[in-house]
Amino acid sequence: MYLKDMKTGQSGVVVGIKKGHASERRLFEIGLVPGARVEVLSRHPFKGPLLLQVGNCRLALGQGIATMVEVELIPG
Amino acid sequence: MTVVMIGNPNVGKSLVLNRLTGSNFIVSNYAGTSLEVSEATINLPNRKIRIIDTPGIYSIFSIGQDQQIIKDILEQEKPELILNVLDASNLERNLMLSFELKQLGIPMIVLLNQIDRARRIGLEIQRERLEKILGAPVLFFSAVAGEGLMELMQMLQLDSLQLNRPSSIEPYLEYENCQECSLQCTGCTGCSIGSESCLGSDDFRRAEIARYTAQLVLHRQSKVQRYWIDKAEKVLDQPILGTIILLIFVFLSFFLLLKFIELSEGPISAILNPVNIFIENFLASLLPDGMINNILSKAIPEGLIIPFTIIMPAMLMVSFLMSVLEDTGILPRYSVALERVGRLFGVSGQAVIPLSLGFGCRTPAILATRLMPTMAERFIVITILSIVIPCAATIGVMAAVITAFDASLLVLLTTMLAVLVILGFLLSRSMPREEVFVYELPPLRIPDWGNVWKKVRMRFAGFFSEVLPLLLVMNIIIRGLMESGFFELFYTMEGFTRSIFGIPSDAFVAVLVTMFQRYLAPLVLLNASLTPREATIAISMISLSLPCLPVMVMTVREIGAKGLVKILALGFITSFVVGATLNLILPG
């Protein structure tokens, strides 16, 4: 599944970043590397940005770009 | 010896530089405060060290303006030492850059900055182990508290070549763990994007190594101290409640600003009035009678008093509010809350930072547009900054003109908002774009009042170096033109300006003169006699016109003369369209 589909409070592990997008590298650099653990802290309404916890750092990601990041849910 | 400081955005490089060298570089709590290279020197007993601070980057291998700056420094300055500044609480990501830097083969010292915060959130870092893995000395550092400063000073006196050993991650790393094989770039044959932004196996390996290293050296304590500021952050980062609180902040700030301007005007004029009369009488008696006397004895006191009563309060208050926003880390939160609004204009959430900085002064705001991910978005943001956003000085001017002529604040604000929406909509539809919003939110902090004070002083310095002299000179020129009857030549345009814009010709002259420097408006306008309707139209035309001269210079520097020409053309069109439209709409 993709980061965009995660619900508030869910955690997951980044599996990959979709190819063919110029922001691929930017996502990677800011810490969304394969294997990184992410938690969705909140989702802004009306297709607004997602707030993520990656390690000890908080990232805000637009919906458009959140479709780029493939994740695997951590159950529980 | 030359040392270059490299690190991720918002890890506190500038503050480290200030600590080390006693300099006074601007520090804020958001990613992208220092977008230019700055340098300072320290004199140690045995050597003089030049330290170059660079803009924050995540990787030196990607393509971008900041990366190029750093590559140029590495090539031209040939630094003997790299000072790699890390945020101690974000090792996993920060270490990716450290491993990249290690590959350069330049001796390196690693500073785990903000170590106090890392400890507070329950992180324990095994320093010796990290030193061994990186093959470079690692220091716990707190630029705020001064921890690690002495150790660093001592280390800088050593021969930098002694400092480093080869990295020794290999014994720790089991390569079977590495996911690179399934993920590596397919040689970019299938990609539509350039190979430079494509990720290669080296990148994945570094990421893997960085994460593995972080796991090896980090120990998480179960007990975490929570402070009220962490709770406040939690509330502020909630989507709906947080947005409402942020909007209340905006409202309160504007209320505070307008109240402050209103309240301070009385006392300031009361103090300055005697001075004013004294200067006028003094000049009138000193100079021989005639036109020069008339011009100077009126223009000089006026040129001195108007800035103090009209512009100074606004500049002071806006500087203060902006500095608090920057220091607390609230500013970037607006970019999240307003991301959807920004999308309407075809810009991503980051635009909030340069646009709100523009309320202070638009010149540094133009520089801050480097935060925007694409050139198209930069152009949109610079155009909006140039045409729509009123700087602190302009706000003071607008307030003064509105009070003097009883013009309509509501009409002015609605017009500005309408222009913002229409301009943003048109610009965003006219250029190719890709919505990219990725931004790192800094932790909330209680502002360091010393730092806030420093910034207020710095922002306000422009009042004496630019606003005051410029207004004085311009005031003399404009007085001269008025006394000489030059403006009367324009009276023949009366019919034209009245029919199209609904304003008398002298107000139109004022619009033309002040388009280039909005805060000159009161000098010209306040001398005319206008009805509220005329004043509303005139001040709207002035408020939505051209960038001022310093902004023009900055724009050429940042996006070239071609971009500026487009913005100027748009500015003229906007101003005239605004005037003509208001003349049609507003009841006579």
Blueprint of the fold:
The complex is a heterodimer of chains A (76) and B (588).
Chain A: E1 11-17, H1 24-29, E2 37-43, E3 50-54, E4 57-61, H2 63-66, E5 69-74
Antiparallel strand pairs in A: 1-2, 1-5, 2-3, 3-4
Chain B: E1 2-7, H1 13-21, E2 38-44, E3 47-53, H2 65-76, E4 81-87, H3 91-103, E5 108-113, H4 115-120, E6 123-125, H5 127-134, E7 138-140, H6 149-156, H7 160-163, H8 180-183, H9 201-217, E8 218-220, H10 228-236, H11 239-286, H12 291-328, H13 331-337, H14 339-344, H15 352-357, H16 362-368, H17 375-387, H18 392-405, H19 409-430, E9 438-441, H20 449-484, H21 494-501, H22 505-514, H23 521-525, H24 532-543, H25 549-585
Parallel strand pairs in B: 1-3, 1-4, 4-5, 5-7
Antiparallel strand pairs in B: 2-3, 6-8
Helix pairs in contact in B: 3-9, 11-12, 12-18, 12-20, 16-25, 17-25, 18-24, 19-24, 22-24, 24-25
| CATH structural fold name of chain A | SH3 type barrels
Major sheet attributes of chain B: 6 strands, mixed
Largest sheet of chain A: 5 strands, antiparallel
Show unreliable segments of chain B: 174-195
- Give the distance, in angstroms, between the N- and C-terminal Cα atoms of chain A: 16 Å
- Could you say what the CATH architecture of chain A is? Roll
Secondary-structure-based class of chain A equals mainly beta
Question: Which class of secondary structure composition applies to the elements of chain B?
Answer: alpha/beta
Number of individual domains of chain A: 1
The gyration radius over C-alpha positions of chain A equals 11 Å
Strand content of chain B: 5-15%
In total, how many beta strands of chain B? 9
- Calculate the mean pLDDT score of chain A and round it: 88
Measured distance between first and last alpha carbons of chain B: 72 Å
Give me the count of strands of chain A.
5
